[in-house]
Design brief:
Number of strands: 0
Order of helices and strands: HHHHHHHHHHHHHH
Radius of gyration: 22 Å
Number of helices: 14
Number of domains: 1
Shape: globular
Structural class: mainly alpha
Helix content: over 70%
Strand content: under 5%
C-alpha cells in the first residue's frame, strides 16, 4: 500500500479503534441505551457543534492569510485553507501537535514564501494563541471564581508563566538577524582556519543568515510594524478558539444542561496546554480522562461518557479523517 493509502486508512483505523475501546470499557449496551435515549433535537446540536469546529478552520485559514500578507507575501484564502487541512493529519498524530508546523512551513514555502518568512508566520500563530490564552487566564483569575482553586489554579498560574515566557521569546527573536550575522562571521572565521569544512560553511552560511533575517523581519512586520494586521490577527484568533471551545457547550445544551461558559473555556485552554506536552499523540487518553473528571459536574456517568466520545470525535478524530483525506489529495498527489 502506498503512502496515500496508508495516510488515509491509518487515521480512520485509529478513530474506529479508539471509539471501540471506549464502548468496550464502559459497556456497549449502556452506551447504546444512552445514545438511543437522546432526544431527536440533539442531532441538531451535534451538527451545529461540528459546523462550529469547521468554522474554526475558516478562521485559522484567514489567520494564515492575514499573517502572510503582514509579512509581505500573498497567500490567498483557498491556499491558506490547503495549508491548514494538509497539516491536520500530522498535527493530530504527533505529541504536542508539533508535526503540523513543518507541514505548514513547507506548504507556505511552496507558495513562494522563504523558509524564514514561513517560520515567522507559523510561530506567529503560536504567538497569537499565547496572547489569547493569557487573556483568558487573566480574566479567569480576576473573576476570583472557584475554578482556579487547587490544582486547576496551579495550572492557570503555571500556564500563564509559560505563555508569557513564549511571548517574550517571540519578541526577543525579532532581533535574531543581528545575532545571526555576528555568529556567522565568528564561526566562519574559526572554520576557515581549522579545516576545509569552512568552505562548506562559507558557501551555505549566507543562505542561513538570509533566512534568519527573513524570519526576524517578518516577525517584526506581524507584531510591531503593521498594527492593522496585528488587530486582525487577534480577532481571527479569538474567533478560531471560541468557535472550537463552543463545541462542548453546544453538546451540553443538547443534553439539556446550561454550563458555565467561562468554566468550559478555561478547562479547554488547560487541555490545549496539556496537549502540548509530548506524552502521547494528540494527548490521547489524557484528554479523555481530564474531560471525564472536569465535566462530571454537569452530567451523570452514562451521559458523560457519551458526551466525551462525541466531543473527542468532533475535535480529534474528525481532524484525523479530514487530515488524512487532505494528505491523500493535496500533499501526496
Amino acid at each position: 500500500m502506498n503512502l496515500r493509502g496508508k495516510a488515509k486508512y491509518i487515521g480512520i483505523g485509529i478513530s474506529i479503534l479508539t471509539l471501540t475501546i471506549f464502548a468496550l470499557v464502559y459497556g456497549p449496551e449502556n452506551l447504546l441505551k444512552t445514545f438511543v435515549s437522546l432526544p431527536v433535537y440533539f442531532l441538531f446540536f451535534f451538527l451545529a457543534a461540528l459546523c462550529l469546529h469547521i468554522l474554526s478552520f475558516i478562521f485559522w485559514a484567514s489567520r494564515i492569510s492575514i499573517l502572510s500578507k503582514a509579512s509581505g507575501i500573498r497567500v490567498t484564502f483557498p491556499r491558506a485553507m490547503i495549508v491548514v487541512l494538509s497539516s491536520l493529519f500530522a498535527a493530530s498524530l504527533t505529541p504536542g501537535y508539533v508535526g503540523g508546523e513543518p507541514v505548514r512551513i513547507k506548504k507556505l514555502s511552496d507558495y513562494g514564501a522563504s523558509y524564514g518568512t514561513s517560520t515567522a508566520v507559523v510561530l506567529g500563530e503560536r504567538g497569537f494563541d499565547a496572547i489569547f490564552f493569557v487573556s483568558v487566564f487573566i480574566i479567569v483569575i480576576l473573576t476570583g471564581l472557584g475554578i482556579v482553586s487547587g490544582k486547576i489554579g496551579i495550572y492557570a498560574v503555571a500556564g500563564t508563566i509559560v505563555l508569557v515566557f513564549f511571548i517574550v521569546f517571540l519578541f526577543i527573536s525579532m532581533s535574531a538577524h543581528r545575532a545571526a550575522g555576528k555568529i556567522n562571521s565568528v564561526v566562519s572565521w574559526i572554520f576557515t582556519r581549522i579545516r576545509k569544512g569552512g568552505r562548506w560553511l562559507q558557501r551555505d552560511a549566507p543562505d542561513i543568515t538570509e533566512e534568519v533575517q527573513s524570519y526576524s523581519l517578518s516577525t517584526r512586520q506581524i507584531f510591531l510594524n503593521r498594527p492593522g494586521y496585528f488587530v486582525a490577527g487577534i480577532a481571527v484568533t479569538t474567533g478560531m478558539w471560541l468557535s472550537d471551545f463552543s463545541v462542548p457547550i453546544l453538546l451540553l445544551l443538547g443534553f439539556g444542561v446550561m454550563p458555565s461558559l467561562l468554566y468550559v473555556i478555561f478547562i479547554q485552554v488547560i487541555l490545549v496546554l496539556i496537549s502540548l506536552v509530548p506524552i502521547t499523540p494528540g494527548a490521547a487518553g489524557l484528554m479523555e480522562v481530564i474531560m471525564l473528571a472536569t465535566f462530571s459536574v454537569f452530567l451523570s456517568h452514562s451521559y458523560l461518557v457519551a458526551f466525551v466520545i462525541m466531543w473527542r470525535f468532533i475535535t480529534f478524530y474528525f481532524n484525523i479523517i479530514l487530515g488524512s483525506l487532505a494528505l491523500h489529495k493535496i500533499v501526496t498527489k
